[in-house]
Amino acid sequence: MFTGTAGASAKREYERRRDARESRIRENHPMVGALILALSDEPQTTRAWATGAVGEERLGTRLDGLTGAGIHALHDRRIPRTQANIDHIVVCASGVFVIDAKKYRGRPSLRVEGGIFRPRTEKLLVGTRDCTKLVDGAHKQVKHVRTALESAGLNQIPVQGMLCFVDADWPLIGGDFTISSVRVLWPKKAVDHITKAGAVDAITAKQAFGALASAFPAYL
Q1: Contact predicate 84/10, CB 8 Å
Q2: Which long-range contacts link 175-179 to residues 24+ away (Cβ below 8 Å)?
Q3: What are phi and psi of 121, to 5 degrees?
Q4: What is the rounded distance in angstroms from the CA atom of residue 191 to the CA atom of residue 171?
Q5: Residue 113 DSSP one-character state
Q6: Integer Cα distance of 96 and 74 in angstroms
Q7: How far apart are CA 152 and CA 155, in angstroms?
Q8: Residues 86, 138, 203, CA angle at the centre, nearest 5°?
């Protein structure tokens, strides 16, 4: 079974944007297009796709090193009828982990606002950047995966969302946290959760793996 190639769709999107920019500049400036390309930087919105692909590839390599003995990993899976994808899905003894890989700079942290006189809200910050929208995206991915498992008669398997920040400024001790039921952590901490003992036996894990591979096709 083709498990997918981590970061493949992000890499293709980067290459598409890079090539489109190059073609546009060469067409608009036939005499000096090559010079403009040599002296100018790619837009941040284009570079972000390449950066994201690297983060997904690195995490994917680590997850592939765990496969076997009841652990199964899927990478870069399409969510049917949407433009979205799921970076990684891992099936293991403790359930299913839906992992969104991010390669951001800064320290991830949880900010709690409100309380007695105002509604309590939680925000995900990376450095000073508000990244709470990533939590909403993780919830949507988890919902899709739960629906697929229910359709396969495997609704007893727990599903957990993860935001895994690769190369972020994590402290030496502690640092991981949970926001709105989504775990925020780094690759080694993700591996710790994936390799824990659990109630999902090897046969059930393999059934879930097959159902999810079918429900979320790989990019070809």
Answers
A1: no
A2: 175/107, 175/108, 177/108, 177/109, 177/110, 179/110, 179/122, 179/124, 179/132, 179/135
A3: -130, 150
A4: 18
A5: E
A6: 11
A7: 8
A8: 60
pLDDT digit string (tens) for 6-62? 888 888 888 888 888 888 988 888 888 787 778 788 888 888 878 888 889 999 999
Lowest-confidence segment of 91-95, 154-158, 172-176 by average pLDDT: 172-176
- Exposure class string for 84-105: b at 16+ Cβ within 10 A, else e: ebbbbbbbbbbbbbbbbbbbbe
SS3 category, 23 = helix
Torsion of CA 21, 22, 25, 26, to 10 degrees: -150
Residue with tokens 């546009």: 24
Q: Is 153 helix (H, G, I), strand (E, B) or coil?
A: coil
Task: Report the C-alpha gap between 192 and 174 in whole angstroms.
Answer: 13
Phi/psi at 178 (nearest 5 deg)? -120, 130
Q: What is the reported pLDDT for 67?
A: 85
Position 111 pLDDT exceeds 80: yes
pLDDT of residue 1: 60
What DSSP state is assigned to residue 82?
S
Half-sphere exposure of 83 (CA within 13 A, CB side): 2
* 64-110 per-position pLDDT tens digit: 999 887 899 999 999 999 989 999 999 999 999 999 999 999 999 99
State whether residue 14 is helix, strand or coil. Answer: helix
Task: Specify the DSSP class assigned to residue 87.
Answer: E
Rg of the chain taking only CA atoms, in angstroms: 20
